[in-house]
Structure formats: structure tokens, C-alpha cells
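Annex B. Sample input.
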Amino acid sequence: MDDLFGRVEQPGIRVAGVDEAGRGPLAGPVFAAAVILDDSRVIDGLNDSKKLVATRREELAQLIRERALAWCIASAGVDEIDRLNILGATMLAMRRACEGLQPAAQQVLVDGNQVPPGLACTAQYVIGGDARVPAISAASILAKTARDAYCLGMHRRFPDYGFDQHKGYATALHLERLRALGPCAEHRRSFAPVKRCFHGEPVTEPYLL
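Annex B, continued. Sample output.
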């Protein structure tokens, strides 16, 4: 597999794909997953999780857990997001996912334009990798399904916010509930619409990270 820089992943070694889910939402942890696929147990239909319907994501997530050589899902919590900022917390979650692989990866390919520091093996980023590299696609699917499941748990704990519908993203519904109810324990205090709640400022405009 060639990446955008013309380099080729090294043959015969364990290559992990890494991706995250949940950088943009106003609430809940950011999740990351790392996956080492087994070439002898092919999984058809892997793709960027955002391009798959929810039922297909769940089907593929089960196959990944059953057929991958190794996989690990990790997260960084709201307190870590607020302390480190969302980029730092995302890198932390990715590193935790890589460190949880058994057997360990010998090379890591990360979706995006940065790699987490402190990995025990070589790593490089692949822009658009969640649609181009099957192992990154698999990681994208595991991270997304894990975070969606967490959001359903948030909904059970805080049903008035509608987390089952917007998954923490800054939709009109979420902003309306945030304005009416104020933040709950799962809201990221460092994100602007949440921060404004503590200063009595309006929380009505669209928000993009």
C-alpha cells in the first residue's frame, strides 16, 4: 500500500491502522481504535465509517472483533479534553489504543495529518486513510461504534439532552437543550458553546471545531 508520500508499508510486519471518533462534539470522550488485520481472514466492505449506515457499521465491527489479528479501543475523557485540549486528548487516546494491542504493532498508520507522540514503533499519517487503508477503515468503524454506544449510555443518564439523536454534536436540538438546561457532567467545558453557559452568553449559533 502506497501512502500519499510514495512510501510503502513494510511487508511481513504487523501494521496497525489507527483512527478516532468524536473530536467535534460538545460532550463525551474522544475515542480511538487501533486494528491489525489478519490477511488470512479477509473482511469485505471496509470503508470510512462515515460512509456506512449504522447497521452496516455494527455488522462490520463484529467481524473486525472476530477476525482481526489484534484490536483495541481506547478513549480520553472530558476532563482530559478540557485539560489537554481536543488535539492532545485525541493523540492520547490513539496512543492508548496502540499500546493496548496484543500482539503489538510494528508499524502504525494513522488517519489524518499527525501521529501521536511516544509510540513504540514507527508511525506515519495517511491523509484520507479511513477510506484508503483497510486497517484504518477498520479502526474508524470500531471507534465510531464504540462512541455511539457510549452516547446511548449518556442518553440513559441524561435523557433530556437528546444524546441518542445528536451524539453530542452541536445540532440545533443540542444547542437548544444546552441553553435551557445548562451543561451536564459529560459536557466539555473548554468548548465555546459550553463555556458560554457559565457566563450567561447565548448558545444559539452553529458551532464547528
